[in-house]
Amino acid sequence: MAAGQTDKDKCLKFRVHVLKEIYDTEKAYLEKIEFVVQHVLCNARERNKLFRDNVLATVFCNIEDVLAHHKALFASMKECSGGKGVVRYESTLASCCLKHIEGFDVYHKYGSNHEQAQRVLREILQDPKVLAFFSGCMLLGDMGDESRMDAFLVMPIQRICKYPLLMKELLKYTPADHPDYQGVQSCLQKMKNICNATNEAKRRWEKLEEIAEWQNSIEGWEGPHITESCNEMILKGQLTKISAGNTQERQIFLLDNSLVYCKKIASHTVRDVSKRRRSSSTSDSIKPDAPVVTNLLFRGRIALDNLDIENIEDGTKDYHSHGVPVHDGWKVHNLTKNKWFVLIAKHGKEKQEWMDAIRREKAKRKSRAMGIAHNNQQLMVMKGDKIYHSMKKDAKSVIKDHKVKFRTHAKCFTGSELVTWLVMTKEAIDEEKAVILGQGLLECGVIHHVLDKHNFQNDNLLYRFRYDDGTYRVKQATNYLVTGGLRIYLRLSGQHNTLLKDLKTTFGSSSKNVLSGVKLIDWMVQNEMGHNREQAVAYVQDLFGIKILRHITDEQGFKDIAGVYYRFTPDDGQDGGSSKAKVDITFRNSFACANIEVPYTADGYGFELSLKAQTIKRLGLTEQKLKVTVVEDKGDAQAKGLCEGQVVVGINSKILNTSEKRHAQSIVKECVKKSSPIGLLIERGSSYRCELVMLENEGLGFHIKGSAPVIIYATDPGSSAARAGVVPGSCIVEVNNIKVLHMTHDEVVKEIRKVLSNGGCELPLRLAQPGLEHVMEYQFETSDARQVLCFEHIFESFCTFSVPAQLLFLFGFNMTKFAEEITPYAKEDARISKFVDDLTKVIATTNKHATTLQLHGKSRWPSYKPSGVQSNKLLDGCPTNCHTHVLTVTSMDDASDLLDSGEANENGTMENGWESELQDCTRHVFTTMAAPDLMLGSQKFSEEEQANIQDVKEKIALLKEIIVELQCDEDNIERLVHEMNLFSSKQQQLTASMGSPRLLTLPRSRLEPTPENSPLNTRRRLSQSESFTLLTPDASPMLGRRRATSFGNPQPLLRLLVQGMVKKLPSILAVLRLSTLKHAYKETAKFSKDYNGYHQILVGFDEDTMRISHDLEDTSTNPSTSTIECAKSLVRCVTKYITECRKHLMLYVALKDDVALFQREQLHFSQCLSAVLSTLSCHLTAALSGQYNPERQFNSDNTEASSKWLEQLAAIGLLVKFEGLLLPDKENELLQLKLLRSTVSLLRNVVLHFDIQSSENTKALTSEVSCEGDQYGLHVTFKLPAHFKDRCPDQLLSSQGIKINPVLFTKDLIHCSSTTDGLIIADINNESINLVKQYYKFYRAFKFDKNSLPSDRVAIQEAIHQLSQPLNDLDNLITQLCKEISDDQRSSVGLLSLTTELCQRLGAVQISMCDSGVHRSMMSLSLEEVCILTRCHGLPIRSLRSAVRSLRSNGAYQILMQKNQTDPNKSFPKEPVKLYQPLF
């Protein structure tokens, strides 16, 4: 009797608990729905410009009716509970629900509209203004913890699903004789019917009911009811669990928010279980009158937020497995209790399924939570910035100095003053909201208490904006730490005798790549990374705090003592040591694609695009594919090979993510507005099949040429070939399943005719398209839990044939001129005669090569010069295996976008802000190629002799340039004199007829002065006079570079021109006095007939030019024909002496140089310059599209950074960084390195110019490149596409010439056995770092240029402060590099990564070379790409090694391996450093 009474008392107690839960949850639900209606919906209706009525009606549906119903329901519940909300055993809440049961019909409409509401909500949240509005409503309503709008909108669905579960629980503890028993039964049934009537509610209810029944089958359950935190069961199974030395079989259940593990037991009664374990849960399913049959006993649960997992390699045995070898297992870390245990699956597939499921569910929750935090942080920063500047401008600003207890606190305010100001300026509705806003600003780090002791209060406590005391850089400081920690790791890991060692553990296994704390500090002090040991320790402790470094067993912090070992987190996973689960980069997809450029016509582009759903089997997701649905017959698009059904992966060189695909129509419309061509990246395999159908009275519509292989060089518009998508330039691989790749032209024609002669009208072909581009797609999670997509895009250089063809024509022309000038002296010396004969042969060969390359560039087969095979000698001037790599990084859409298989909505909400989304991506450009090989010639001369010959050749080009410039001055003077006469005689008539002063234009001189030691100060610019050209602001871009302008009377300009011409003479004389010319004259004095010695040339030049220049200056005061005659006399005089000097220089070259080496130098120069121009073209495209950002790690805006880089290019020139991964221990590669050094130095003679293509040329999508001169004085002109005209800065177009500043860095991947080889490497690196330091000086000056800084003094100080930190970090980086290079014997291969970081931040063009352009180059490139993702895009540093492996296993390295027949075993050293270890 006593026991029965006890069970009844428990039932009564549990009934009260359930009633209280119903009442409390109803109250909380009502408050949240009321908040949505009053604070979100009502405010949204006032924003007419931001929201349309139909959008609000779709998103919020009838939520106001839901609110009205629950207000009435809760009022009845409150009345039933005595009006005070205190529920009792006799309360009849179920009867209250029955009274309002008809009101629940509002959920039918809300539930049926829910899916559409969520879809529209996702679309409008793409607009940053909408996102800011919703986040602001949440924060000001004190709802920061749940500030996802979609979470609020799903609450009604979740609530209606909870009622049946609550009523079912209430019925369980309500006796049959209770007055409310019938009401509970009836209410339960009706609530089930309501849920069944609503599809969405029915699905959710069924899932909740399933897990509720599952929980009821578990004995001894502890903690709250499972439905309070979880919604569905994800995975379940039986696994082996190792914990505290015990190995047990456990039933594991994974839910969407928890991991539950139970013990499988035999059937038993409740009483047996209750003896074994007492449960304190209010939700235990206990019935007093019947036993429960079960086979599961509760053992524990872990919330996924408090759980981490880590993979265990098969065969590993360590501390957590208690020495037991583990196969198909992983570790679980309970963060709440700081305890580890091991789970083991039956096989590898099951293990992977469990680990993927856990990571996926954790990622969903973390992404949602961090997305909320990120949005709130961004909103508060924007809000705080606005408030700060508004308060600064306010005449009655509350920001002032306060004195408290004899201490002055500068630039602060009281909490009450800020609250009053916020309410007064309507930044907050009332004081309560103002306090909430103030606390939000404090939590986000915008303001802080002056002593950092208090939260925000509406009181006399003092607060200060962090902008004013320089402490608002928390996130940036973390970026600096990550960057610094990465540098340390790369330097240590790149050492040949690294400090990172393997350590044996107590269980016989080893901890790899560890070092003691004292050795790390010793190394840092030795490398001057800190003024003293204390600073080094403090720095490492900061790295420890952000988890770049950790103790090998996670048992203690960092200590500067021996015997305590630490590991860098990128090395986690090298053994079975304990660590947090790494966030690896995930390979999603890869595809080959063709770039099709479609010109614009009056009728448009002739194609249409639309989104189609397609399943990705690897990921189990449905993704939107952008496909071509319509192609106009006989149009340009069809002629280019576009056909229906093709998948578009990119537009205008930009790989599109899911969100951008929805905006594809908007991008096309924008191109139509500009009448510009459009480029489509079409997914296509390396070969494709097509079946051509020959219709009556029609041919097949394609034309072929070439032999082995045969190329389709054209297709007829509207023909069968065009409709089938045959691309001109494709190679015929098979005809009717017969391989014809190596057949001659006639044999292929015979096979085609054989198919057609048998009465067939169908021709099956398999074609291979040249120049395919490859795209690899990856996904990773950043440190702040944002999902990021990155695309590795690799394509062949467009300059592979076109630029070498131009250069070889130029070289042939210049060599012909050279031969003509020295031929008269061939009879006097046999050496000159032989040189002329050899040079004539080289000229013939060069012209033949140039013609071949020009034709080859059109056929494009092969489309590049491969390595590893004996290539055609005609391609010697082309870069070998030259490929451009573009790493595009962009934010990833929410997972729901990938799952959405519906058609894209084409209303206005789709197009808002699409341009900003496209510019939100960042592109990083690299190039890999094979180092120029030895080719012809031998190493005949010493390096000193070669340097002398090269110097002589440079002086020949310089003297030629002087003559050209003086002739240009002469023409300008003649034109100005004629204009003077015209102006004097007809000044009044001209003014009356033109209505404005006369505009005169003159060709602009290339010899205008530039500051000495400037990167733009080429050896051809001699004058030290002031610039005499006056540019008009409205001058055309083409005239801006080449022409000078004068208004009105041309006499002032004439005087300036004459003065400039005269002031050039001392500079020319200084050139003639150079030791190079003196030495050359001495060697060739016997060929001089007009002069007795070199001294006579100098004296004659000085006397004659001085006399003529005086006459020229005198006549310029009263210009006449005598002025023109004096100018011509001066030019003739200078030309006479310069021609004599050039003659001796050229004869010196003929006597000393070797023609084979001369030709090799030209071919090497052609290869390197082609790679530079190809890479620069991609940089320009990215920058002009607003997607290039060398300062991305400092969160700078992409568009602004792109514009700044273009201005920097015009101001201080282009930095080009070559990375030579050659092995000095190999004789051939050592010689290649020396020749590469010589070739790189020649690139300093290249000057770049930029123009815009004519507006009539609307078919050009890429830049056109033209060259003029030779390797000792080359001018390269980039003609940019016309649609970039508005984005190209005037400074770039009006620049007189932009110098290339090339540098070469190299490092042996193994330790050099030869001291001499090591000295050569050190010498190359020292020379290059000095050049980079010189460039960096001008870079700093450019950054601090007064014209680019704001005018306000306070703003200037803030701008300088913002600039100083990145520049100071660069100073530190350069210091580390200098230290590393100076100590070459102990230097690390990591210096290559440091030089890449330095040059990347300086906006350099980067080219990596090795023997083949495949193995070592790609090892280096994959490492640098991952480093960029870590520094600039938030990839966790612990994922560095795994991300490098992923890129090397799936990325461009594998593509190049397939394209080139190279042996990696020959290319790689035997024992390279760990970061460059190959995959084979």
Question: What does this molecule look like?
Answer:
This protein is α+β, with helices and mostly antiparallel strands. 49% of the residues lie in helices and 18% in strands. The protein contains 46 helices and 40 strands. The chain has a 16-stranded mixed β-sheet that branches. Strands 1-5-4-3-2-8-7-6 form an eight-stranded mixed β-sheet, covered by helices on one side. The protein has a four-stranded antiparallel β-sheet with strand order 9-10-12-11. The longest helix is centred in the N-terminal third of the chain and has 46 residues. The chain starts with a helix and ends in a 13-residue tail after the last helix.
